Amino acid sequence: MVWVNALDAADRGIEHGEMTEVWNDRGALRLPAYVTNRITPGVISVPQGAWYRPETPGGIDVGGSTNVLTSHFPTAYAKANGQHSNLVEIRKA
User: Which of 9, 37, 44, 93 would staple 14 via disulfide (CB 3.0–4.6 Å)?
Assistant: First the structure.
């Protein structure tokens, strides 16, 4: 599931347990929403990854693999793991 702040969820018409799509220019995930105030507004979290399972070849991943949203390149200055911070958007599926 994807953690989303209650304010962000309300702005997007997302309710707890509803399916969402999390996407960027690299790919997309479909996950149920965990609406909570325990995460900062403007931030989402997919706390556990899973096996890649696209709906169709190259389609939206329904398995929860955050790798579809990330780059394999290290960050520019620190040469750190790029998977720890990704710009994405979320909407009701």
Answer: 9
pTM above 0.70, yes or no: yes
Listed by start position, the domains of the chain span 2-92
Cα dihedral 24, 29, 35, 36 in deg (nearest 10): -70
pLDDT value for 84: 67
Order of strands, edge to edge, in the sheet holding 2-5? 44-45, 2-5, 28-36, 19-23, 89-92
Domain at 2-92, CATH from 2.60.40.1120, 1.20.1250.20, 1.25.40.10, 2.40.40.20: 2.40.40.20
Tens digits of per-residue pLDDT, 38-51? 999 999 998 877 78
